[in-house]
Write a structure and sequence with these properties.
Two copies of one chain form a homodimer.
Chain A: H1 2-32, E1 36-44, H2 53-75, H3 80-92, E2 112-119, E3 125-132, H4 137-147, E4 152-154, H5 155-164, H6 172-175, H7 178-190, E5 216-221, E6 227-233, E7 243-244, E8 254-256, E9 261-267, H8 269-274, H9 277-287, H10 292-307, E10 311-317, E11 322-326, E12 330-337, E13 342-347
Parallel strand pairs in A: 3-4
Antiparallel strand pairs in A: 1-5, 1-12, 2-3, 2-6, 5-6, 8-9, 9-10, 10-11, 12-13
Helix pairs in contact in A: 2-3, 3-4, 9-10
Chain lengths: 349, 349
């Protein structure tokens, strides 16, 4: 009996050692995880004939600057959260995109912005909706996530919070761009109160000449295999009633989960809310075992498009695969990976 | 050759007839779909020793009245959308629950309310967040869904919309209850600014003596097999910064999809946002082929609880199965089905 026990003990000891070896192997694998960052600057009727070569060059340059900023954070061993935040800052500070400085104007002629960020490691998240005069709304969202018990703050309350936490504010003049002012006047002339009604208003076509989907987003995976996603936007030109779109909604505009992937969306926000687009991609990946590319494609073409919505999504899965897709003419987008790949694209092909 | 063609034609005709028969069978089945409604009036530290027998009787009576109201709509062939809206109205008009008249007070001593509704047939949805003085926030959410292109409106803008669409407003005095005022003073005395900080604030335990999860929700399936879900709340006592909880977030507090189920949540909202609790239940049902009961259980105990959250969910699946679960001491809840079942419960057992 004693001999039998000894054999059992040796067997258990052997198993424990075996387990330890497995763990250290896993650690080595985690350390080898490649890192990557992917960004978008909005999807819409982005066609070569609408964009001058100077503007295209400026957009490509800014997308590259944004990618490089996040990539440098990752390369230096920084977190994916810091990478996506700093990357978004570059795009928020540019007048080229519908976020921060370049945000579109609401029906009162003001920039009313939304942003959200999510940590795929802890599932922590932060969001601000309908904020005015905050230079970088994504910074306020990050502070909500890191500092207080809530996930989502809105309007005046979010601004009070941001002031208390020393987020940078800017005067209206900082956000004013002639381009956005002209867009607003054009849309106001075209759409009266009647056309705001659901029955006669077509979200998909009524803004089609406005290239309006300039929302910015970033997703990154760092050297520790942690995924983060972030989105920042000015929403829709001429929006009313303190409308909240998908960008500040966790699971619609932004989602990150180390078990699956990180996602940032851009497009007709209402359809991304109704389909929980970002969370749905994660679940297609997790439960239906589809690739990230197929998951994104399925949600855009089989769920959002049949409802009448359009736009695009970018993502990175837990194995550092980068993917994107969109059902619009184009999407400002790019990625940079530790494997050396660096891609920037604007049009469909 | 001609004879062969004739045989083929007969075969095709036979197949078409067979298909037709199948379809009519399906139609008969749809017509036979039982209808049902399930409600909650919040989850929390609801224990027998904390509640007087008079209060328990009043709560049971109001839950029954709410159930009967929605059930009557369904019995008369009305839509599940109308059923959940009218059911929620009964609870919003009662001071017993944290919604409408009985809503808790924010840090300024005002009732700041959220509500959302979703149509499982069309995936249409409507929500209002951070609204004041609206008697029945769920009615405003329904009008957002039915009338305009947006899904989610907030703050002053949502109120402007509601006024334009003739939603009923009430003075502050209507919403004032001494019980909520006392709760606010108690919490204010207990929690200073420092305890608002994430590091030292425990969402799960710090309000434990407040029975605070009085959010109301309803899910119904009608005679046409259409599922609808709705949620209405005053959020957290002493909330600041125009915090938005899970109740007005489609996929977190409310979700409905005829392909799977309808869900309404109640609890520590931040955790339901981070897990996309309502949408996650739907996907567990749809992709993992779990029963509704198991799906709800899994999301609460394996996803929300490990993060530190608590609360409950109610739901009805496409086969009119009713289910609920919660990880708190109790949840005000009940259901009524066309099979004759009528159940009202408060405590765990």
């Amino acid at each position: 009996m004693l001999r039998f026990q000894t054999i059992i003990y040796i067997f258990i000891a052997f198993q424990l050692t075996a387990c330890k070896n497995d763990t250290s192997k896993e650690n080595i694998e985690i350390k080898k995880t490649p890192f990557a960052i992917v960004i978008h600057g909005g999807a819409g009727t982005i066609k070569k004939e609408y964009i001058s070569s100077e503007k295209e060059a400026a957009i490509r340059q800014k997308l590259q600057e944004a990618l490089n900023t996040g990539y440098l954070v990752l390369e230096n061993g920084g977190s994916s959260l810091d990478a996506v935040q700093k990357t978004i800052n570059v795009m928020e500070n540019s007048p080229l995109f519908n976020a921060g400085k370049g945000a579109v104007l609401n029906s009162d002629g003001k920039t009313e912005m939304d942003a959200s960020i999510m940590d795929g490691n802890t599932l922590n998240a932060g969001a601000v909706a309908g904020v005015f005069n905050i230079k970088n709304p994504i910074n306020a969202a990050r502070l909500v996530m890191d500092s207080i018990k809530h996930v989502m703050l809105s309007g005046k309350g979010a601004e009070t919070f941001a002031k208390k936490y020393n987020v940078q504010f800017e005067e209206d003049a900082y956000f004013f761009t002639e381009r956005r002012w002209n867009s607003l006047q054009k849309i106001k002339a075209k759409h009266n109160e009647k056309t705001f009604n659901k029955a006669v208003y077509n979200l998909k076509t009524d803004f089609v000449d406005e290239h309006k989907y300039g929302t910015v987003g970033a997703v990154a995976i760092d050297k520790n295999g942690n995924i983060a996603a972030a989105t920042s936007t000015g929403g829709l030109t001429n929006k009313k009633y303190n409308r909240i779109g998908d960008s500040p909604i966790i699971g619609a505009g932004t989602y990150a989960n180390n078990k699956s992937c990180g996602i940032s969306s851009t497009g007709t926000g209402e359809f991304f809310i109704r389909t929980l687009a970002a969370h749905e991609v994660s679940n297609q990946f997790l439960y239906k075992k589809l690739s990230l590319k197929k998951s994104i494609h399925d949600v855009i073409f089989n769920q959002i498009e049949p409802l009448g919505g359009d736009g695009g999504m970018i993502g990175i899965d837990k194995n550092a695969n980068v993917a994107w897709d969109f059902n619009t003419a184009g999407m400002y987008r790019g990625y940079k990976k530790s494997t050396g790949e660096n891609v920037i694209k604007i049009y469909k092909k």
